[in-house]
Design brief:
Layout lengths: L3 H15 L1 E2 L1 H8 L3 H13 L4 E4 L5 E4 L12 H14 L7 H14 L3 H13 L15 H11 L1 E9 L3 E15 L2 E8 L4 E6 L3 E10 L8 H10 L5 E7 L3 H8 L9 E4 L2 E8 L2 H9 L5 E5 L1 H16 L3
Antiparallel strand pairs: 1-3, 2-3, 4-5, 4-8, 5-6, 6-7, 9-11, 9-12, 10-11
Helix pairs in contact: 1-3, 2-3, 4-6, 10-11
Length: 318
């Protein structure tokens, strides 16, 4: 269970849902003792929430008859934003997301006027948000723990499982999290490598907070750093290719801003991309997902890897 403020709000939610509920049941649900429950009731009363206490064997706590929280008002634009946000959250690969999202939607609808509730349900019933799906997570609580650590600027430890090296223990200062093309990424300072690194969350397990703290660099943008790292991933093989598209279309795919677009050079037939990779197999998989044509200038090893990848894809169509 979360902190005291969350528990107090949970007590209010239970009172609104159940009408009357005993102190013992509240204590069991929240994982605290009955004396703590009485303190939470006092906090609600101090906030102006009228709570009635019924003594005796079948007693308990209930809200004064007729008490309701004021209706929650949204503009049409805000209603659409909330509804689409809940729809998108279902696609983000979060552990146990469905029950939590359903609970949030139920709480919002409980305090919405009827016409607003109808609009929210209408968006939910008629609109779909389909995001790319990544690989299953090795640690269902990795995202939640890393979010907490990033916000509190606490270092974390975890095991990172790479195809080349297997599981390696890492200690990292988490600077930010990014959801991109169906995957979650962590960006931060890796103490093992003594350098900035990006990590795929589906390759992370056993995340735990450490006692050490850190200071995030001012104006650090996790999305910009990740985009830059994609353009300079590895240092083994030089790669040169032409993307047959314009800068605007490329920026929509790569997510770069003006600060990290220097890897592209405008040419008559498109954009020249010069970068590096340590894996032709990974780079060919990445190229196959691009929504526009491209021409590989060098190296030949990348061309061979792309042909093999294309052959495997064609075999799936037989």
């Amino acid at each position: 269970m979360s902190g005291p403020t969350t528990r107090v709000l949970t007590v209010l939610e239970l009172l609104q849902t159940h009408g009357q509920i005993g102190g013992a049941e509240l204590a069991e649900r929240l994982g605290v003792d009955r004396r703590t429950i009485r303190r939470y009731i006092t906090v609600l009363e101090e906030l102006g929430i009228p709570v009635m206490t019924e003594q005796g064997r079948y007693g308990g706590y209930r809200l004064v008859a007729g008490f309701k929280l004021p209706p929650m008002m949204f503009t049409d634009e805000e209603t659409l934003a909330v509804s689409l946000g809940l729809l998108a959250a279902r696609q983000l690969g979060l552990a146990d997301a469905a029950p939590a999202i359903a609970s949030v939607q139920a709480k919002l609808e409980r305090v919405m006027p009827a016409d607003l509730k109808k609009r929210v349900r209408g968006v939910s019933d008629t609109t779909r948000v389909i995001l790319p799906r990544g690989e299953p997570s090795l640690d269902d609580r990795a995202l939640q723990n890393l979010t907490v650590a990033t916000e509190a600027m606490r270092s974390v430890g975890f095991t990172y499982h790479s195809p080349e090296h297997g599981g390696i223990d890492r200690s990292v200062d988490p600077y930010g999290l990014v959801f991109r093309q169906g995957r979650w990424y962590l960006t931060g300072f890796c103490h093992l490598r003594q350098a900035m690194r990006s990590f795929r969350l589906d390759r992370i397990s056993h995340v735990h907070l450490l006692t050490a703290t850190f200071q995030r660099p001012p104006d650090f943008d996790a999305a910009d750093f990740l985009s830059e790292s994609f353009l300079s991933w590895g240092r083994t093989h030089e790669v040169s290719l032409v993307l047959h598209t314009d800068r605007e279309s490329a920026s929509a795919v790569f997510g770069f801003h003006s600060s990290c677009a220097e890897g592209f050079e405008q040419r008559e037939d498109g954009l020249l991309l010069t970068t590096q990779t340590d894996s032709f197999e990974w780079f060919s998989w990445w190229l196959a997902q691009l929504p526009f044509r491209f021409t590989i200038l060098k190296p030949d090893g990348l061309k061979d890897a792309l042909r093999e990848h294309a052959t495997r894809l064609l075999e799936c169509c037989k």
